Every structure is written in C-alpha cells, then in structure tokens.
Amino acid sequence: MKYLSFAFLISWLLVLPACKKQVNTQLCDNKVAVLDLNLLEQNIVQKVEADSPMGYAYVIAKDGQVERQGAGGLARSAAEGNLPMTTNSIMHIASVSKTITTAAVLKLLEDKDLDINEHIYPYLPPGWQVAEITKAITFRQLLRHEVSYPIKGEGSVSYDSLQAYAERGLSISLASYSNINHSFFRIIIPRLWDKYRPASGGAGYDSVFTASVYEKYIQEEMFQPLGITGTLNTMGNNNVVLAYSGTNDNTGKFGPEDYRYLSGAFGWQMSAYETAKFWAYLWFSHDILSNSMQKSMKTLELGLWNTTSGEHGTYYGKRGEWFNKDGNSTKRAYNTFVILYPDNVQVTLFTNSPLSISMSGLLRDAYDEAFVSECL
Fold first, then answer.
1. Which of 171, 190, 238, 338 is the most exposed place for a label (fewest CB within 10 A)?
2. Segments of the chain assigned E as strands
3. For 167-193, how does the pLDDT look when each residue is reduced to its tens digit (9 = 90+)?
4. How far apart, in whole angstroms, are the C-alpha atoms of residue 195 and residue 190?
5. Helices (H), 58-134
6. pTM for the structure as a whole
C-alpha cells in the first residue's frame, strides 16, 4: 500500500459528493456491494439524532483524508453560554485516551528496539520496592489488561495507589478491563524516554515529574509534529464542552478539568477533528508507528478494546465514556468512539449526553447499512 506523505495528509481535503450515473439495473449481469459515504453519513446522523443528544460531532475519513464532517446541537446549554457543538469543540475523550497512550508506548518500545514482551519493572520508579510477583508482568500483558491487582475498591489511579499496587504485587490473569493498567504507563513512559530526567536522581520520579514527562512525550513526540493541540489541562477555558443528560438539561457537568495527575487511561481533551487526525496518522502514515507495529496493534487489539465484527470484517474501535450521576437517576455523560473499518474508512463520533444504544452497535450498523449494489 502506498502511504500518504505528511503534506498530503494534513491537507484534509473535503470531497464533494460524486454524481452517480443512472444505470438500468435490468441490464446488469453482475452487481457488487459498494460503500456509499453519503449514506454512511446519513445513517450516523439519523441514528444519533433519534436519541436527541444535547450535541454531537462526527468526522468521516478514508485513507487518511476527511471525506465528510458535521455537528449538531449544543456544546453548552442556553443557560451556560449557548455554544454550538462543532467538530473543533474541545471535549474530554475519556478512554479513547488509551489508544493514544498505547501508541506512545509502542512508539517508545520501537525507538528503543525493545519488544512488547519485555518486563515493565525496570521502568518503574527506582525508589519503589517492587514485589517479586510484579516483576513477571510484561508490556504486552499490561497493554492487554491481563493483570490483576491486590487492592480492591475504587481502583484509584493516583501515583501513590499505583506504587501500592506494584509493591503489594501485580499478578497475571485473564483479561479484565481496568483504568489502572494504562495509568501505569503515565509512570513508565518517563523511564523509557531519555530526554528528561529529574535533577534529584531516582528519588525525583514522583507524581509531579512523571505526570509532566508523560504529557510532554505525547505532546512533543506525537501531537506537535502533526499539528495537534490536545491537552490534559483545560482549566480557564470556558468554551470546553459540558456534559448533559439530554436536550432539556440546563446544568452541565465537568468542563474545564485538570487530569494531569490521573492520566494515562483517560484525560486527553481534544476535538473530534483532532482525534480523527491522530487516528489518520496512526494508521495511514509512519509518523507514529511502523507498518509492523501497526499490524501488532491490530492483531493484539492493543488500545482497541472495543473492536467488533460486522458484515464486512473486523472493525477496530475504541470507546470512551465519562459520566456523572445525581443520585440514581440523572446521568450526564461524554461519549466518544473512533472506529476503523476494513476499507480504510474511519469514523470519529462525539456526543455530550448519553445515548440509549451503544456507540459500537450504532457505528457498526450505520456502516453495514451503507452498502449499495452497483453494476460491475
């Protein structure tokens, strides 16, 4: 496959719908199912709007180029700024952050000529008294959530909690999705990357230092070269998307947040457009990962926990949800999903209120229902 150049990718051309030739189907001896991008877009919009979200934004790309994009509703209610939702609205992407962290880890391993079956313990802070059982854990197992933790409860991802897990002992287990796994990479990435080291030596790999270097690595080594401005800290930005329960809700939750000291599994705040752009470079260039590492990421479904099967093959995806509940009733939520289909079409979808159906099912069905028969 010929990969697109950097200059070509960032052009992000908007393609006008092509005129279709009228075909007398009675004269067709053979027909083939072809994806209709206009119908895909129509299906997505109809399925999303049927749930009446407060706001939504989507980007449809193919081979790394934007083909369709759009948005509807509000990023902030009439009572809180009356801001329209756009593909450039900044929102917490929740667990879609795991794909970004995964790519960062794989890029570093590749740059260091390390294998994903390497053990993680040499890259934990030198001051930690790592339990012997923890020393058996590999990058692959942590990326695939094949780790169990000795401390049950709320699953805190603070620096002190991660240290306690490692010192009490991490053990190999069947895959069990947890934010703890990718939060460990906030601590590991600063040991893998040589550019920044604490002035105080091993003792300096504390909460502040590791959080800072994790953020710097992703911004300096991945985002900035691609023209992406994702951030973990939006404090002071009063245009950030708020989360609602639906169109009749005037009280938003979240908004400007600082996730620097809890990040790794979540925390990145970006627009739908920038998230789509990152995925385009992830799969259709070698600016982030080599071809072999891209294949490994797909084969092992690393950072692609919500991969599913459809009528046309495997659909690689990652979902994110960040929500707040008032008592047992009102749920206000961010929902995000990015999916890559077999024909190099990708969709990024954001909503800032809950949906009644899963985004995975919505995007699978919208795609499967967008094929039309054409004459060969």
1. 238
2. 31-35, 55-62, 65-76, 83-84, 91-92, 147-148, 171-172, 269-270, 308-310, 313-326, 330-340, 345-351, 371-375
3. 999 999 998 999 999 999 999 999 999
4. 9
5. 97-111
6. 0.91
